[in-house]
């Protein structure tokens, strides 16, 4: 039964939304950066051609469609932070000064963006990066069952990240980081 909130039909238009998003972002980058001069026609043609090229390459489209929700969540979080600062009297000029004086904010946003893109790429390319096709359990002639490899990239990734050796390495790196921070601190 169709309801007022049934938006499954919009799924068929996701390619159009993605095309428009890529076109607008690329056009904005060309206009803001003045990479190709001041000609808006050249900027729109270049943005259109990049959007069409990305539309043809399905894995790039899948990476973009996987990362868009995460970037929207990041944008909403940043927006709420800006609104909360403005409630306490911060002006728009103050935001610009804060970003210029504190480089950690921009570095954090870039780092989170890189993590989002890497996560999206791992979700799209996943097991194919390993060069193996996922296999299922097999049974030998003696009746023993076994598995030649795990069934998904996510299982392989979590098994690697939560392996005791990797976790031990992370603890050693954290101890080394804090040791360097304490030793490098100026004596006051």
Describe what you observe in this structure.
The chain is mainly α. The chain has helices spanning 14-33, 40-56, 58-87, 92-101, 103-130, 153-161, 164-184, and strands at 137-139, 145-147. Strands 1-2 form a two-stranded antiparallel ribbon. A hairpin with a 5-residue loop joins β1 (137-139) and β2 (145-147). The longest helix has 30 residues, at 58-87. The chain is extended and about 60 Å long. The model is unreliable at 146-150 (pLDDT under 50).
Head-to-tail CA distance between termini: 71 Å
Report the β-strand fraction as a percent range.
under 5%
Secondary structural class: mainly alpha
Number of helices: 7
Give the overall silhouette: extended
Unreliable residue runs: 146-150
Report strand order across the widest sheet. 1-2
Backbone CA Rg: 24 Å
Task: Please write the string of helix (H) and strand (E) elements.
Answer: HHHHHEEHH
Mean of pLDDT: 82
Number of strands: 2
Quaternary state of this entry equals single chain
Level of helix content?
A: over 70%
Can you summarize the main beta sheet?
Answer: 2 strands, antiparallel
Offer a concise description of the structure:
The chain is mainly alpha-helical and 188 residues long. The chain has seven helices and two strands.
Can you give keywords for this protein?
188 residues; mainly alpha; two-stranded antiparallel sheet; 7 helices; 2 strands; 72% helix; extended
């Amino acid at each position: 039964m169709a309801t007022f909130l049934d938006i499954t039909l919009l799924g068929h238009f996701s390619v159009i939304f993605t095309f428009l998003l890529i076109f607008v972002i690329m056009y904005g980058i060309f206009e803001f950066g003045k990479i190709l001069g001041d000609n808006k026609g050249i900027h729109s043609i270049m943005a259109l051609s990049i959007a069409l090229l990305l539309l043809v390459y399905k894995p790039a489209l899948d990476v973009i469609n996987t990362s868009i929700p995460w970037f929207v969540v990041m944008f909403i979080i940043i927006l709420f932070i800006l609104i909360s600062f403005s409630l306490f009297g911060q002006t728009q000029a103050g935001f610009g000064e804060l970003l210029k004086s504190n480089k950690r904010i921009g570095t954090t946003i870039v780092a989170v963006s890189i993590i989002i893109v890497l996560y999206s790429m791992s979700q799209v390319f996943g097991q194919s990066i390993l060069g193996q096709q996922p296999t299922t359990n097999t049974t030998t002639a003696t009746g023993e069952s076994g598995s030649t490899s795990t069934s998904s990239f996510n299982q392989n990734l979590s098994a690697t990240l939560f392996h005791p050796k990797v976790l031990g390495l992370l603890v050693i790196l954290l101890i080394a980081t804090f040791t360097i921070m304490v030793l490098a601190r100026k004596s006051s």
